[in-house]
Design brief:
By secondary structure, the protein is mainly alpha-helical. It has 29 helices and 8 strands. Among the domains are: 110 residues, no CATH class; 30 residues, no CATH class. A hairpin with a 5-residue loop joins strand 7 and strand 8. The termini are far apart.
Length: 651
């Protein structure tokens, strides 16, 4: 029988540990997969918002001043969950056995899924307690320790006499308040006392630590107030120290997935912490963590030794790799447009070499491999372009794909990744744009990459009977995206094809058709077909080799419609049998119709200027219009009825 909330809370307040463990075990079993969502209420609110949006065509957003204290009258159980969370936070600060502590932390993890009931878990005391149980040391000044850890009675959880002494909760299963304090020194050169504790923990104690980290990650993710307080408590520094300790161990992988997850959450949700981690040599340390997870072995220069016959990377290690990659992106994407100095360039090249190895490895599960490649592409697109030359620096004789004496394994992997994204066609902006940008910029600065991709994406034309966008190949898929409704997707797809054509307008039109190419050409002022030197900053990096045409293309070239990009069927001449006067009259009638549509602001005729851009056609067809107006006026006069005799006498 499931006990009610009052019974559970009463057992906690009485300190009956056996009863608490029994009741919480039943509670956890029942709500293990529950996220406390009132689906009917959510659907009702969503429908109401949709109807309001359709009615007013606008939606006003009023931010909640304190989302953690939100209370729904439709769910009275929310208040009981908040009380249960508050009672558990106080309860786990006492002396508990590992088995009971684990059950309590599991309950807190379940409760932390509900963003509306996080107020008791977003307090300073709760964050400090969960961080300590998760094995994270917080360095706080003495005064702040006493302010943030005082309970309702005014008693502090930890008292210190020196500033910046680590404030922790003991990570072992059985602990007391005096065990919650730990000196942060090395003890005269000995191994760190916290590291010794972690090595001595049994399996139950490690599970308690993991449960505490899960709950802490949920609280940080779901509560903006907890994020602010975590920054005030300098939680990032504590997590970062724990991660560095894990990295320095010798075994493969750090074994601390949830610490890495918390590090990612803090840098993702608090922008100021990204800069802080970057200044703490975050790129270098996380690169080392990546090397440790993937057991990297170095050859000469920036080349990593790859073993194609090795076993796939396990799912556990792959999950840690993903968290490291996401955190690396958080702290590098802001600096990719800056010109790196010599030291930073060497560091980014080192990272790019590890990322190349990361792309080429095999992993357990197709989804895992896809996720790692996606996050790797995101980081590569954030690195300075000059540092991506290491992607091609591996020895060619070991390559599965070689082009012009260069190892193209990495480029081929990126191309296959892009093709899979094109085929799936979902969330193109989030999933496709990074790899498109990466291939585009790499093709601009690396001649071998451009030549290889051009042979794969834009091979010499043979079949000119179908329109480019109807081609089932990668070229056709990219051409179809050139008219996509999303401007960013459209621009990125067109830019890649344009660069593969060495930014040559005639060649670009040849492979895509003028109708598909017009958007990019208009944006860059190239509609006249002449290159604008101001927009062509990479002109010197393109070789002068010519585009070779196939025999099939040369035979059909004269019959290709440049707008559609294919050979069109013969159409009858609509002016056949008309005299020159009839043709001129038909042309003037057409111009008059266009002018009327323009005057009524239905259309605006434009033309291509000498600088290759669109410009309105003003008064260029006024001659025919005025003449037609005069003729129309005379015609109206002829159709007027004759006047009466009285009118004639008046004349």
């Amino acid at each position: 029988m499931m006990p009610d909330m009052e019974q559970i809370i009463g057992s906690i307040l009485q300190g009956d540990q056996d009863s608490v463990q029994h009741h919480l075990h039943s509670y956890n079993t029942r709500y293990a997969d529950c996220f406390f969502c009132n689906r009917e209420e959510q659907e009702r609110k969503q429908q109401q918002e949709l109807e309001e949006f359709r009615k007013n065509k606008t939606r006003e957003f009023v931010p909640d001043p304190d989302p953690d204290m939100d209370s729904d009258d439709d769910e009275p159980d929310l208040l009981f969950r908040q009380r249960l969370a508050a009672a558990l936070i106080s309860f786990i600060s006492g002396q508990l056995q590992s088995s009971l502590l684990r059950v309590c932390l599991h309950t807190l993890r379940i409760l932390s899924r509900d963003s509306r009931g996080l107020a008791p878990m977003a307090t300073y005391r709760a964050l400090i307690t969960l961080a300590g149980l998760g094995g994270i040391r917080l360095h706080l000044p003495c005064q702040q320790q006493q302010e943030t850890t005082a309970d309702d009675s005014g008693r502090t959880c930890c008292q210190t006499t020196e500033d910046a002494t680590p404030l922790v909760a003991c990570a072992t299963g059985t602990h007391s308040s005096d065990q919650a304090c730990c000196n942060g020194g090395n003890g005269g050169g000995k191994k760190d006392i916290w590291e010794e504790k972690e090595e001595e923990m049994d399996e139950d104690e490690k599970m308690c630590q993991k449960e505490a980290m899960k709950a802490l990650c949920n609280v940080i993710y779901n509560s903006p107030r907890a994020q602010e307080r975590a920054a005030e408590l300098r939680l990032l520094q504590g997590v970062w120290e724990s991660v560095k300790i894990d990295i320095n161990r010798r075994e493969q992988g750090t074994g601390q997935f949830y610490r890495l997850r918390l590090l990612f959450l803090l840098t993702a949700l608090r922008p100021e912490l990204r800069l802080q981690l970057w200044q703490e040599q975050g790129v270098s340390v996380l690169t080392k963590a990546l090397e440790r997870c993937l057991a990297v072995r170095w050859a000469e220069g920036y080349e990593v030794l790859s073993d194609v016959t090795g076993a796939p990377v396990s799912t556990e290690i792959a999950q840690e790799v993903i968290e490291i990659l996401k955190t690396l992106f958080n702290i590098t994407h802001k600096f990719n447009r800056q010109e790196p100095d010599e030291e930073d360039a060497a560091q980014y090249r080192h990272l790019a070499a590890v990322l190349r190895h990361c792309l080429l490895l095999s992993y357990d599960g197709e989804d895992t491999s896809e996720d790692i490649q996606r996050h790797t592409v995101n980081i590569l697109s954030a690195l300075p372009l000059k540092c991506l030359d290491v992607l091609l620096s591996a020895h060619a004789h070991k390559a599965s794909h070689e082009w012009e004496g260069v190892n193209m394994d990495c480029v081929h992997t990126l191309l296959c990744f892009m093709e899979r994204r094109l085929t799936r066609g979902d969330k193109l902006k989030e999933k496709l744009i990074p790899v498109l940008n990466l291939l585009t910029e790499s093709s601009r600065v690396h001649r071998e990459t451009r030549h290889y991709l051009r042979q794969k994406i834009l091979p010499p034309l043979r079949d000119v009977a179908i329109r480019p966008e109807q081609d089932p190949t990668v070229r056709g898929q990219l051409v179809r995206l050139m008219t996509h409704v999303d401007t960013d997707v459209k621009h990125c797809a067109a830019e890649l094809l344009f660069v593969l054509c060495k930014e040559n307008v005639s060649r670009f039109v040849k492979y895509t058709g003028y109708g598909n190419a017009a958007g990019l050409l208009a944006a860059r002022g190239l509609l006249s077909g002449r290159r604008n030197s101001g927009d062509f900053q990479y002109a010197s990096q393109y070789s002068s080799d010519s585009d070779s045409d196939t025999e099939e293309y040369r035979e059909a070239k004269a019959r290709i419609n440049l707008v559609t990009g294919r050979v069109e069927a013969e159409q009858p001449d609509p002016m056949e049998g008309m005299t020159e006067e009839e043709k001129e009259e038909e042309a003037c009638r057409l111009i008059s119709m266009i002018n009327r549509l323009s005057q009524n602001q239905i259309i605006q005729p434009v033309g291509v200027t000498v600088d290759g851009r669109f410009a309105p056609l003003c008064n260029q067809i006024s001659g025919c219009t005025l003449q037609e107006d005069d003729e129309g006026e005379e015609e109206n006069m002829d159709m007027m009825p004759e006047g009466t005799d009285e009118d004639k006498r008046m004349e």
